[in-house]
Each structure stands twice: as C-alpha cells, then as structure tokens.
Design goal:
mainly alpha; two-stranded antiparallel sheet; 6 helices; 2 strands; about 5% strand
Length: about 170
C-alpha cells in the first residue's frame, strides 16, 4: 500500500508541483529529507512511530527504513513542490494553506494507523503529537524557503523538545 501512496504523491507532484522551478525549492527539499533522516537516526532504537507494510509488497518493503527512504525521495519532493509552489501571499490564506497540508498529512496518518495498519505509534506517540508535529513541520518547511536559519532553529528546538519529552536515549544511537 505504501507503493500506492507514493505513486499518488508522485502523480500529484507531477500534476500540481512546480517542477520548472525545482531549483528554487531544492534546498528546502533537502532540509525536509535531512530532518526526517536525522529523526530516524535519533529514534532508531527508540521509535516514536514505525512504518510497516501490511497489504502487499511486504517482501520489498520489509521494514521502516526502506519505507521511510522511499517516502523521503518521492513524497517529500512532491509535497514541497506543490506546497511551496502554490504558497499564497495573503496572511489568512497562508494559515489556511498550512492547515490544509497539516490536515492532509494528519488524515493520511489516521487512516494508515487505524484502518490500514501501515504505521504504528510507539513510546507514547499519539495522533495529537502527530498534529503538533505536522504544524511544526509545515511551518518549518515554509520558514526554510524564506529564511533557512529560522527553520534550523525551529528544527533544533523541536528536536530538543521531543528528546526531552519522550526521554529518547540518545546515548544508544546506532
């Protein structure tokens, strides 16, 4: 099923993404991927959520890492090219645009958690935390495109909050 989700994001990115302007968004795509990569390394032995394949392709997508890498290189670029490529100029519309993407990601996760069993929450993570995470993530993506230093500050502060709140044993990194 993860192949289907990735294909849908790829098709959406193809149709609505600003591919002709990919160079403008390239560093933000890398920021998005790098933050997720860092989170995966940080929580490798103490995951807060774990992707799993439960419908088909379980031999190919046999663990969280394979699925996560596929998401990083397909879903994140497509998301960034659509999200930033159509980001509105008016303040009210900006808030609604961010909220739209937060809700889209949150609803997909809800369906994957409760109905398709494509993700599992661990170590105290919940849908409430996912909502907050998505707000921070989409705000940081926009901030990175406008002022990268602010996005890195947001990412560092958010990482510290997550490490402390969930008591992630960073001394046991792989």
């Amino acid at each position: 099923m993860h192949f289907v989700y990735n294909l849908l994001f790829l098709l959406a990115g193809w149709k609505w993404g600003k591919w002709q302007e990919w160079r403008k968004y390239y560093s933000t795509i890398l920021f998005f991927i790098l933050c997720d990569f860092f989170a995966n390394v940080l929580t490798y032995n103490y995951p807060l959520w774990r992707y799993q394949e439960s419908i088909f392709a379980t031999n190919i997508l046999s663990n969280h890492s394979y699925i996560s890498i596929m998401i990083m290189f397909i879903v994140y670029p497509a998301t960034t090219l659509i999200y930033l490529g159509h980001f509105p100029k008016e303040t009210g519309k900006k808030i609604l645009w961010i909220l739209f993407w937060v809700l889209l990601y949150w609803i997909v996760e809800f369906i994957n958690l409760h109905h398709l069993k494509l993700i599992r929450h661990d170590n105290g993570w919940s849908m409430g935390w996912s909502f907050i995470f998505d707000v921070v993530m989409f705000t940081a993506i926009w901030a990175h495109y406008r002022k990268p230093i602010i996005a890195w500050v947001i990412a560092i502060i958010w990482s510290i909050i997550i490490i402390l709140f969930f008591r992630i044993p960073i001394w046991s990194l792989p």
